[in-house]
Structures are given as structure tokens and as C-alpha cells.
Amino acid sequence: MTQKLTPAIDTSLYPNRWIAVVKDHVIGVGLTPEQAFRAAKRTRSKDKPALLFVDSEGQVRLPQASAADWLNHHSLLRETIALLQNQQTEAYLVGGAVRDLLLGRNEVVDFDFVVPDNGLTVARRVANGLQAAFYPLDTERGTGRVVCDTPDGKIYLDFASFRGPDLESDLADRDFTINAMAMSLTGSPQLIDPLQGQQDLRQQYIRAVSPEAFRHDPVRVLRAVRQAAEFNFTVTPDTETYLRQAVTQLDTVSPERQRDELVKLLNTPAPGHAVRMLHNYGVLAPLLPEVEAMVGVTQSAPHYQTVFEHTLTALEVWPVDVEELGIPDLLAGHVRRYLNIEMAGHLSIAALMPLALLLHDTGKPLTRTEEIAAAETKIRFLGHARESAHLARQVMNRFRFSSQATDFVTSVVLHHMRPLMLAAGDKLSRRAIYRFFRDSSSPTCPAGVAIALHALIDHQATYPPGQGQTEGEQLRHVVVQLLTAYFEAQDQVVDPPPLLNGRDLIDIFGLKQGRLIGLLLSHLKEAQAAGEVTDRAAAIDFIKADPNFAHQQTKDL
């Protein structure tokens, strides 16, 4: 069965080759999947490409990797299987890892195993054999986790007891057929596929294991959409029917589980497509009414789409490497490291970016006005950023995100227009750069760089294709200055170390503790950032000349 690919890819250029594909781009080519994968990582280290084989006729086909070939690239898995066989333990690899085996994916970090019983005991034995960490996950279901540290990061091995009396019952209790396959680890690995998951994988279908799949766990409503977007698969008509019937049960799922699936959904290669599916299936309105409210809300030029469609376009722009946003090579490495910063709740800045994009215009339906001048209707959204930030905080709180993640997303949404305003003004000054980061960032909420990146994405989604280049260059120039200041002039422009502190003001000027000291120090810091004060003597003179200081001296006379 051939693979569906966008017409933008001319596969006839790659006969008898493996290609690494992200969205509609071939980013790596090789004679083997490993060569294509390595080539992709050299150019786009952040992305997780799909590996596909192009036959002699230029047709792309799903890889038919054997279990043995796949295991050769996972030394830790080979070692785990050897331990299980030495212990004469009946065990099966199941779920997403088997699916990814058949898709030719190499970057698997989560492996799920099932055993007839005593999953906790098996996990503990494997952890001891691998000299790895062990954690009980679910004592009631007998599930334990082994965490292995490798040069490429952590790998997780989960061991669970059967869901039911045997393996077939376990597989029948899973969500979708493509996730309901197992591999026997006794002797030569053998695929066990009672529900024809491999056939659905070839035909690129998301098919529920049973009509009760969503009723048993309504969070699968989100998972179906997420995996359809992640793999570019089609939800079968019967599965769509079951999904729609289960939407009303989604509120029985804990906010934390909904949050985790939502984050994964927004971090697929096609987040805009995923959100559109949520809308089409009737999931978006109960899940995110703030986003559903944007549907059909029109805007004036330069916008050419409704607020909702603009948001989806922005989401589609996001999963790109930073160079594609016009970030110079000298800054790109800094930006990638910034995006990998982990916030509270084990979510990176990169993982939170699509949430900010999704919510950045949610205030527009509530602030929309129309003005008619010279027979032309002008649509305005005065104060929409503040209203959007208010709604974003509500959404983040509703899904129980950490306070740090909530503050971060709220700040990006609140200030998302600032870079555009700076680009519309005169030459960007050091003072303006300082104020931008002062207002938008803090040590626990470093949102300034994300706001700058958000502005570039927002701009690309605003203009029709081929338009807005001049405005885009002006904005990009401002963004580069902001990023340069943040990464290369932090101590000079963004956060200069104080030349005086509160104790100095008390000792030198005889001031009393209070609001005035904080006000004077904030004025001094801004003057330092602007390059107007460069040493301690100048700092003392600056304080003396501050009108607030002079006013206090007059009051004390």
C-alpha cells in the first residue's frame, strides 16, 4: 500500500531511496533509514521526521522493517529482552512501540511491556539487571517503570500485568487497532495482530478497537485526533461516530489528563490541522469554548482570514526550525537552547509555544467593533491582547497547568503585539529594548524571546502569501535586535547589575526604607540599560537629579 504524501513532494527524484519527511519537506535522503535519519538531524535537529521508502517507480511505501532489523538499533531493548529470556519470563512488547517499529521510526523512548501477572516484580528485576531506576506506577494494576539513562537521554520501560486473563483480552481493551499489536519476545520476535492493526497502519486509518473504546476512556477522543494529525491518518467513519457520541463524556476525565493530551496534540507536526479536526468533530466547543468563539469572526486587512483561520495558520507556521523564521545562524543556537528550557510541570518552552499561539487572539470576539468611515467599514479589536491574556489565564488554570507555565503563556499572549509596535516606531533604542524585557519577563517567566518569535509567526499568518514582505523585514530587524540584546548583551541592556542598592541609598542619602527607594533604583537601572549611567559616581549623581528624590528632599525641609 502506498503512502499518502502532499503533492509538494516530487518523490520521483528519490527512486530506491529512504527519505526523511517533516510536513511537506524532504529533509534527509539515504540508502538506509539510518542514513536518511542522520542526514535529517544534521539539517533539522529539532524535528522528528517520518522515514519512508521510495520504490523504483517513485511510489512511497510504508517501510516493512523486520523485528530483528528494528531491535538491532535498540541495544537497550536487546539487553532487556535478554534479561527477560534468561529469567524465563513470558513478556510482550505492545502499543506505540510496535506501531513505531512498523512505521520505521527510530526515536522511540517509551516501551510498554505486558506480562501475565506481577508486572511490578518483573519491572524491579529488569531494573536491577540494567542497574537502572525503578518506580511503581500503579500498584493496583501491577505496573512498574524502569528509567534508563543513556547518552541520548532517558528511556522508559513500563511493565504491566495483562488487562484481563490473557494477551488477546489485553489487546482488545486498548484504544485503536494500530496501538493494539504485540510482539512476542520468546525466541524470535513475532508480531501478534488479532485486530488487523498492521493493515490499518498500511491503509493509514485510525480505527477504534471496539464501539466501547471511547466510553471506557473518553480521553481517547483527544488521542484519536492527536494520532490522526501526528501520522496524517484518517479516522474511519465508524470511529468518528463513536468519537462524536463520547464528546459529552469528556468532562468526566480529569483536567490533568485532558491537559496532557491537549499538549501532545498541539505538538504534533500539524497542530492547526488537529485543532480543525477538534472543531469538525464537535470537540472544540466543550473543550475550549474560548477558541471555538473565534470561528467566523471576520477581520480587516491586512488580515485575509477569520480570527479562527488565522490562528490555525499561525499554528501551522510554528513547527519549523528557527532559521525558517529568518533568525541568523549566530542566534539560532541560542534560540534552540532557549526553547528547550523546561518549565515547571516538565514542559519545555517549545511545548508551550503552540498554546500561546492558540490563545493569542481569543479576546477578539469580545472586543470586536466596526467603524464606518468614507463608506468603508473598519474592524477594530481595541484591548484584545489584554482580554486574550485574561482568557488564556483562565484556560491554563482550568487545565491545571503549573503557575510558571500559566504565567509564561499569559505573558506571551498579553505582550504579543509589542514587537509589532516597536517595528512601527522609530529606531529601536536600548531603553525600548530594556522596557520590553522588563515588562514581559522575569527570572521565573522568561517570556521575552518567545514573544519575539511569536510576533514573526503571527506576521506570517496575517498576510496573504506573497504579501507583507516590507513589514516582515522591519519586524524581523526588530526581533533580531531584541534577541541579540537578550543573548549577547544581557548585562548591558536587558538586566544590568545595579551600581547602587537600597542600603547605599540609605547610607549615602539618609533615605528611609519605603517605596521611594524601589522607585529610584528602577529609574537607575533603566538609565544603566540605556547607557546613560556607567559607573558608581554617575549613579549617585543620577539619584540626586531624580525629580522624585528632589521632591522628597523638599518635603523633609
Describe the structure.
There is one protein chain. Helix content is 51%, strand content 14%. Residues 1-6 have low confidence and may be disordered. With 557 residues, the protein is α+β, with helices and mostly antiparallel strands. Strands 7-8-9-6-5-10-11 form a seven-stranded mixed beta sheet. A four-stranded antiparallel beta sheet has the order 2-1-3-4. The protein has a two-stranded parallel sheet with strand order 12-13. It has five domains: 11-63, no CATH class; 68-203, Beta Polymerase, domain 2 (2-Layer Sandwich), CATH 3.30.460.10; 212-287, Hydrophobic Seed Protein, CATH 1.10.110.30; 296-489, no CATH class; 502-556, no CATH class. Helix 15 (307-317) packs across helix 23 (448-462) and helix 23 (448-462) runs antiparallel to helix 24 (469-488). The longest helix has 20 residues, at 469-488. It is globular, with a radius of gyration of 28 Å.
Short description:
With 557 residues, this protein is of the alpha+beta class. The chain folds into five domains: 53 residues, no CATH class; 136 residues, Beta Polymerase, domain 2 (2-Layer Sandwich), CATH 3.30.460; 76 residues, Hydrophobic Seed Protein (Orthogonal Bundle), CATH 1.10.110.30; 194 residues, no CATH class; 55 residues, no CATH class.
